[in-house]
Amino acid sequence: MITHTVDTAQEMAAFLRARRERLDPRDLGLPSRRQARRTPGLRREEVAELAGISVDYIVRLEQGRGLRPSADVVEALARALRLAPVERAYLYDLAQQRPRDAGTPATAAAPPLARLVADLSPLPVMLMNHRYDILAWNREMTRLLLDFDTLPPSQRNSMWLCLLHPEIREFYVDRERVVREGIAHLRAAWAAHPEDRALTGLIAEFITRDEDFARLWAEREIEVNGRGRKVMRHPDVGAIAVNFEVLMPLQDPDQRLLIFRAADDESQSALDRLCAR
Fold it and tell me: 111-275 maps to which CATH number?
């Protein structure tokens, strides 16, 4: 359930339970027990022992009683639960123990970055903020995806387009992977920006309107993926495979440059045909 702001205590409780239950005690060298385990993963007592924290404190955290663990406790839990770096950062955000940028979320492109988006032609490029709002784009990106000028501002969001736009919804060959990666990023952004009502409103809309999003959101995967590959079905030129890179400017850390490059000669030829129109 998404409210107007992040309920960090309840999300931390669910996240800690999920990460505890996915661990195999044998992988951590814990002794086997004669009594059968009623739930998968580690017991709370085992997490408490690994982290050097009392069992009662673990219980209260997993019950969402509003505790705010210290940075030392967060680090101990991250080690005990074998969290990946991005999951560790997520837990720090939920505990409000990671330093935050005092600035407000970007709602417009910084002028130097808008010029850079244009200068990077003929590569398809767009500029987004942490919630995937599209702030600037070049001509090549409109040829590849769609003309963003024709959309109302509320729909200029790459996740909204992927989930709800009738054409872009079927655009990606491996749609579930693209959606899964987008959700993993949004969950990390959601914890890092707990007062961003626009972001929580978007997530609530996606949960309500898209069954795949609701299912994948409940899995609580966390990932910030700045590099990868996507294959697209373009209605005019057929399949296009692109490698993507996401860059974060030091001067404007809430803005992100998404740059596409053709992954093979056939895809480059298709992009050339698109942009020559």
Answer: 3.30.450.180
Q: What angle do CA 49, 54, 59 make, to 5 degrees?
A: 105
Contact of 130 with 193, CB cutoff 8 Å = yes
CA pair distance 219, 195, nearest whole angstrom: 22
The count of residues in the chain is 277
DSSP lists the bridge partners of residue 239 as: 233
Cα distance between residue 174 and residue 241, in whole Å: 11
- CATH architecture type of domain 8-94: Orthogonal Bundle (1.10)
The C-alpha atoms of residue 137 and residue 126 are separated, in whole angstroms, by 4
- What's the first-to-final CA gap in the chain, in angstroms? 46
For residue range 45-74, list pLDDT tens digits in order: 999 999 999 999 999 999 988 788 999 999
